[in-house]
Amino acid sequence: xxxxxxxxxxxxxxxHRAVAARLQxxxxxxxxxxxxxxxxxxxAETVRSHAALLGREGIxxxxxxxxxxxxxxxxxxxxxxxxREFLGYANPLTDFAFVMQGLGSAPVSRFxxxxxxxxxxxxxxSGEALIAFALTEESAGTDAAAMQxxxxxxxxxxxxxxxxxxxxxxxxxxxYVTFAVTDAERGTRGISAFLVRADDPGFRVxxxxxxxxxxxxxxxxxxxxxxxAGRLIGEEGQxxxxxxxxxxxxxxxxxxxxxxxxxRAMDAALDFAANRRMFGQTLADFQLTQARIADMATALDAAxxxxxxxxxxxxxxxxxxxxxxxxxxxxxxxxxxxxxxxxVQLFGGRGVxxxxxxxxxxxxxxxxxxxxxxxxxxxxxxxxxxxxxRQREGR
Length: 395
Ligand SMILES: Cc1cc2nc3c(=O)[nH]c(=O)nc-3n(C[C@H](O)[C@H](O)[C@H](O)COP(=O)(O)OP(=O)(O)OC[C@H]3O[C@@H](n4cnc5c(N)ncnc54)[C@H](O)[C@@H]3O)c2cc1C
Description:
Elements: H1 14-29, H2 40-56, H3 77-90, H4 92-111, H5 114-126, E1 131-134, E2 150-154, E3 157-168, E4 175-181, E5 191-197, E6 203-208, E7 217-228, E8 232-233, H6 239-275, E9 277-278, E10 281-282, H7 287-317, H8 322-347, H9 357-364, H10 375-392
Parallel strand pairs: 1-4
Antiparallel strand pairs: 2-3, 3-7, 4-5, 5-8, 6-7, 9-10
The structure holds flavin-adenine dinucleotide.
Residues 133-136, 141-142, 166-168, 211, 217, 367, 370-371, 374, 376-377, 380 line the site of flavin-adenine dinucleotide.
């Protein structure tokens, strides 16, 4: 079971400790550490069933506001991060099933019409419907504003054309929050967000992508996809701001998932090192091993401090903590990769064998340094804030 002593930190209150206890209880009753799915299709089935389980158990209720089936009146970033840390420790694919429900639905929770919220949020919280967040395109990844997808007003409806790629939950989602240019003259203020349903005419999943750690991922195609006016999320031209607001909440949570993966690798490596005998003692008895363990433990605590500082700040101030979110995401994912690499090293040859937990986590964690803002882009965000602060202070 994951060590949860950090929930005593001042970033948390009793409500968060109750979330941690609920997750511990859930994971005791449902050990999710099952065999890794062989491919994207098998992973899709796992995600479907784990999302349904999380819905039945009330765990998805942390991803929607109280008025529509949520646990708390407003989304609480600390609870979301705690859920991801616990679920990530147990099974990265379960964490993925969890977070996709939030990444996709938060634009609706925060900017959608009452009608849209009432239609989809209770179904997301129960796990009955799955959702995706479709921003990335072939020529618009980090530079998301370079998207080519276009939506035009046609009478009382919207006509959407374009493609998206690297979309998680492609093929299993019932809803796709999709971003498209509605006014090419207005740059980022000319991008709008739409709710597309999987059965909308003109929409299809055009490709399935296989990645190093199988999960449902694919490309989407929109060909004269006609959407009723009510499918616009927020205001026309607000789409880019909606996408960025989502990142402020979910970026630190990527760090929290990575932290859960790394804690698991560390625990497994400690067990191994304490039992592996060599040269008349255990691997853990060597000072070189202890130095490695100290580095791993310190990296985990530093990552946790940055993550929960960022989300505490966002929850308490009610404002975006963009710089802190970038620091947390960048540091936690980079350090998690190093901690897991250290675990592989401690396991020796076993560490690179399929079926070893460190080998699996080594693959699982890799994409987290890329999606929702690469490490490089987070460095740029942090540096820009530092330089802006300096300018503002007139230094
Ligand atoms: C497993 C997985 C799941 C994903 N799920 C989703 C999803 O659900 N929805 C969605 O919309 N997208 C999703 N993505 C896409 C993800 O957000 C993009 O991959 C990411 O934004 C990077 O874009 P790119 O892959 O096009 O790389 P590019 O933008 O082409 O970047 C290539 C490299 O250039 C670097 N780079 C970029 N800008 C600079 C700069 N200014 N200076 C220096 N270096 C720079 C990047 O850091 C990177 O190392 C997912 C990706 C993966 C791998």
